[in-house]
Amino acid sequence: MVEQIGMNAGKVWTQLEKKGRLNVKDLKKAVNITYNDLYAAFGWLAREEKLILEKEGKEVFVSLC
Q1: What angle (nearest 5°) sits at the alpha carbon of residue 16, between those of residues 59 and 31?
Q2: What DSSP state is assigned to residue 52?
Q3: Residue whose C-alpha is closest to residue 45's, from 1, 7, 9, 5
Q4: 9-65: pLDDT as tens digits
Q5: Exposure of 50 by Cβ count < 10 A (0-12 exposed, 13-18 middle, 19+ buried)?
Q6: What gap in Å lies between CA 45 and CA 65, rounded to an integer?
Q7: 54 in helix, strand or coil?
Q8: Pairing with 17, which of 25, 27, 53, 57 sits 20 to 30 Å away (CA)?
Q9: Distance CA 65, CA 47 (A)
Q10: SS3 for 1?
């Protein structure tokens, strides 16, 4: 399971590198994984201090540090 989280984190990082800042919904569509897997990937990348998470109103945006 840890290996899968790492692979999903790589997918998230790749999309953010290509597209820049995205909201969570658009990022989920881009990487085509479940919300649970997406949030696990966020945890992985956040632990490595590679993510910026920002809340604007009801939306959460994600970008790379």
Answers
A1: 80
A2: E
A3: 9
A4: 999 999 999 999 999 999 999 999 999 999 999 999 999 999 999 999 999 999 999
A5: middle
A6: 10
A7: strand
A8: 57
A9: 12
A10: coil
